[in-house]
Q: What sequence folds into this?
């Protein structure tokens, strides 16, 4: 899922997302959308789909992650989280019920439960207390979800989130609790937040042995191409990450042959296409040297090209993964493609 | 001509310029391109057309205007202009010959003569001395132009520029001198640089009585929709201006019904299309409220939408002007359309 933080996937038209990149679903950040444009506007618009003209599936996070990572003067309590806006310092209070209410108003097809995203280096006691809270909050989210409806008449799903940090017994307990809720899909949170990568894979594997296989399993905030393929091998179906767009804006270009840093002198007079057999129209329309120049002089077009290219690459990668799963040769394909795409060019 | 300062029309793909906006020709700034990416890169690329993938006509200015407006520690002499780069303070020296040589390397289809753009408030003595210099520089440009060739094999034209500030006798003398050169096209410079608008129209009218009517007449750096239509009525065929893109990035949107400032609260919950019968795909894809939100939160997509929209509007406006010239009712159409497009919404 390309990430559309404040209601737009940065530097990319919705028509490009659909027709050039082939995205099937995008993500919006509840925290950002709640602050700007705000719920009044979104409600009057008839929800985010109508507001930003994205007429395909959309998912919103619960806002929890941003509350815990972006805001100041946070106060966490049983009831919820009080915080100050990173924009204007105004005070707000999110509860599990409010996170559901807000996401009802945003109107995304998939809403996420409000949880505490436990830091990757939390000790066992903290992680356990945090999970206890997340589980009580999940029940409150689900209660609110059952009592309410989408104000625009379409169906909305609510995905619970498995926490438990890097502790196998906590993750197992969390996955069992989540699986028992019978939701339309389930998420794995609190990974790729500072823990060793091997721990992440271990947790994904363990959790996915418990989560139902016939419902989408969503690994939140991941990640690099290698993380995505490793997680797919362990049963994950959905991902979101700002990496293709944010790293693109910083000049990092992912290709089938490896990763290019466009700020590197090396591309200065390489007039070959960005990617000869790339997945987007920008790949043969523009050259490496031109993209390097644009990034180098901070031209907006450079951000556009890098963003479209990287998103198209990510979508291509997971489409290929799907093909190889169906063909039954994923395990042979994965090391080969990883050797290529993770190479530094 | 949409302006592509450093080799890209800011926030717009070349495919959008061609297919959505319908631009026939774009402009590049010699001063900026000379500094970045630099002549080495442009020469190795095979010229700017190949570098930025714009395979339609292109015009470059001579660099003079930016030398006189952007740089520090300028020293103007008979020989040329010495200046320090606004990027890194490095010292450079432009002469009429060098301006031609640089534009040969950039490879634009239309090159401009190196001149001094006399300030709009210059006194008569200054304006006369400045014109004397511009005329001597023009002869040196033309000599160099005749001695050299396009390094990429295609044809390049060189347009002389009429200066003379707001003084009728200087403008007349300058126009006669320029007309006598028999160039492929001719330009009017040194207007829209601080003089009263009525003076600008007066000078355009006077100069266009002298410049040949069967060659394109190009009014440099103009302007607002009303300036363009007034100048067209006085015989001008070509324009360039950063207004549609720069003002667009600041939230000013030109439409057939008037001008909108998207930062205005008024658009906050106006969910109607940006322009119902607008000239670009963005006009009905996105709403006013959404564009306002994007501009408001500094999302790159807002800059893209505003730039495409405004460029498409400008191209639509001059295409309409052409239709009405051909239909013979330009003078009746002009006040009507101006009343609409200059309205503040």
A:
């Amino acid at each position: 899922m390309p990430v559309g933080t404040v209601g737009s996937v940065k530097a990319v038209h919705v028509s490009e997302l659909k027709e050039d990149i082939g995205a099937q679903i995008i993500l919006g950040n509840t925290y950002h959308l709640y602050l700007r444009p705000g719920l009044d506007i979104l409600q009057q618009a008839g929800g985010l789909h109508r507001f930003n003209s994205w007429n395909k599936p959309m998912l919103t996070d619960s806002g929890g992650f941003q509350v815990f990572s972006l805001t100041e003067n946070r106060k966490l309590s049983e009831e919820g989280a009080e915080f100050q806006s990173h924009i204007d310092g105004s005070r707000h209070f999110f509860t599990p019920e409010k996170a559901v209410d807000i996401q009802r108003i945003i109107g995304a097809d998939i809403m996420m439960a409000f949880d505490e995203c436990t830091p990757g280096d939390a000790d066992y006691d903290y992680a356990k207390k945090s999970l206890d809270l997340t589980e009580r909050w999940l029940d409150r989210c689900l209660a609110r979800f059952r009592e309410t409806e989408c104000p625009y008449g379409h169906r909305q799903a609510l995905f619970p989130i498995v926490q438990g940090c890097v502790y196998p017994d906590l993750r197992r307990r969390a996955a069992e609790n989540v699986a028992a809720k019978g939701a339309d899909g389930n998420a794995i949170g609190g990974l790729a937040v500072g823990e060793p990568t091997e721990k992440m894979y271990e947790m994904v594997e363990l959790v996915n042995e418990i989560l139902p296989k016939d419902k989408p399993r969503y690994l939140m905030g991941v990640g690099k191409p290698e993380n995505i393929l490793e997680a797919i091998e362990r049963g994950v179906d959905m991902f979101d990450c700002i990496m293709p767009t944010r790293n693109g804006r910083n000049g990092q270009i992912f290709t089938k042959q490896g990763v290019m840093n466009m700020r590197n002198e090396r591309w200065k007079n390489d007039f070959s296409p960005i990617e000869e057999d790339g997945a987007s129209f920008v790949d043969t329309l523009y050259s490496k040297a031109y993209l390097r120049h644009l990034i180098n002089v901070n031209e907006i077009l450079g951000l556009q090209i890098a963003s479209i290219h990287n998103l198209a690459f990510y979508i291509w990668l997971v489409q290929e993964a799907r093909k190889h799963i169906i063909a039954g040769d994923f395990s042979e394909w994965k090391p080969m493609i990883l050797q290529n795409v993770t190479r530094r060019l």
